[in-house]
Amino acid sequence: MNNPIAGKVVVITGASSGLGEATARLLAAEGASVALGARRGDRIQALTEELVANGGRALAVATDVTDYDQVKRLVDAAVQSYGRLDVMINNAGVMPHSPLERLKVDDWNRMIDVNIKGVLYGIAAALPYMQQQKSGHIINVSSVAGHKVRPGGVVYAATKTAVRVISEGLRMEVKPYNIRTTVISPGAVATELPESVTEPDVAENLRRFYAEFAIPADSFARMVAFVISQPEEVDVNEILFRPTRQEL
Predict the structure, then answer these.
(1) How is domain 9-241 classified at the architecture level of CATH?
(2) Which residues have C-beta within 8 Å of that of residue 203, sequence separation ≥ 6?
(3) Residue 8 pLDDT more than 80?
(4) Catalytic residue list
(5) Which terminus of the chain has fewer Cβ atoms in its 10 Å neighbourhood, N or C?
């Protein structure tokens, strides 16, 4: 049977752990060429070496998604190495929850820079190549928090709602170029996101929640594999998934 993932060139931000790492492993195992970006260059370099040792095609480019030039360098490296760009996965994100009254302005700015600007910069870096090719697939990562807001997670929810809005607007704008778009909104998935919380009491509550409910990161990777495996005329625009036991 034909493998629709084999041969695709995929760029993944936030690839040093969690959702990005799991997705890189699955797609590389299925025959995709992956270009991995993350701030922790040592982590993605080690992952790249592992994937290559297992017969995959991978490269690592240290990337801070809050810097457009670095995101562009990652995408350019993928195209230079593999000749094209099929899928851009804007996955990098942070989640430093806190009640608004604690005035964690630096955390707010960080979420806006990573969760919103990082997605926009990924789109900006990938879009010219995909327009030229008249093909491509942009996958943005939102969250259940982009659908439901709860106390303590207001700014995070706002950034993830923004990702959904950006994704829907992008969907309509890229129709002339045969580009597909998907926004994936996970619930509690086992990642390092809770470690980005700077308030000790909030972090402890979140860790307990994740310990009880979180499902493995490869659940997200399988969603990615599903959407990019669809025939070219099928555009899966949005997926919202949660652990079966998660109520919110």
Answers:
(1) 3-Layer(aba) Sandwich (3.40)
(2) 194, 195, 197
(3) yes
(4) 156
(5) N
